[in-house]
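ARCHIVE CARD
CATEGORY: sequence design from structure
SOURCE FIELD: tokenized fold
FIELD CONTENT:
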């Protein structure tokens, strides 16, 4: 085979995002914020390069880490939704059109409780089945249409009832 990317000893490739030059990439963080970059704003390197730390491109706060990267082509997100899941089991569905004007210092994508953090964001069509898994091995499955569409500043609703010391992992 051929080496696809270079990484440090303690790094690993978690997700590979395919994009073209004029696509917009949305970066969702563990603190519930979303940042935007055009693909051409990310420097191009060879396939064996180790890349550039994301903190050099985005104005992240202390302790803020990227949880999800979504390629949001304008044509694709017309009738789409972002489905949010937090560590505390809260879920939220928001129309993708509410994320058109993202400032350089980010935009609050959802309100989080003090001890909660964002785990994952999915770009959906509004009719997907969602499965939430917990650290203790429990899971729940439901259709996302059972969650009403909420505004960007909403907190969300309980997607899974967690047992003591349990948390959502995916």
């Amino acid at each position: 085979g051929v080496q696809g990317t270079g990484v440090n000893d303690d790094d690993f490739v978690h997700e590979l995002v395919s994009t073209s030059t004029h696509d917009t990439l949305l970066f969702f963080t563990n603190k519930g914020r979303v940042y935007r970059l055009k693909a051409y704003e990310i420097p191009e390197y060879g396939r064996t390069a180790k890349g550039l730390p994301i903190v050099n491109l985005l104005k992240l706060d202390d302790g803020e880490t990227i949880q999800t990267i979504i390629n949001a082509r304008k044509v694709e997100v017309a009738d789409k939704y972002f489905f949010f899941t937090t560590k505390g089991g809260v879920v939220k569905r928001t129309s993708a059109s509410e994320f058109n004007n993202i400032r350089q210092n980010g935009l609050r994508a959802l309100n989080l409780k003090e001890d909660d953090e964002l785990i994952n964001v999915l770009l959906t069509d509004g009719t997907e089945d969602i499965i939430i898994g917990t650290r203790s091995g429990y899971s729940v499955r439901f259709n996302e249409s059972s969650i009403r569409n909420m505004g960007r500043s909403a907190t969300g609703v309980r997607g899974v009832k967690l047992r003591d010391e349990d948390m959502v992992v995916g």
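CARD ANNOTATION: The two ends are 31 Å apart (CA to CA). The mean pLDDT is 88.
SHELF: design records, drawer C
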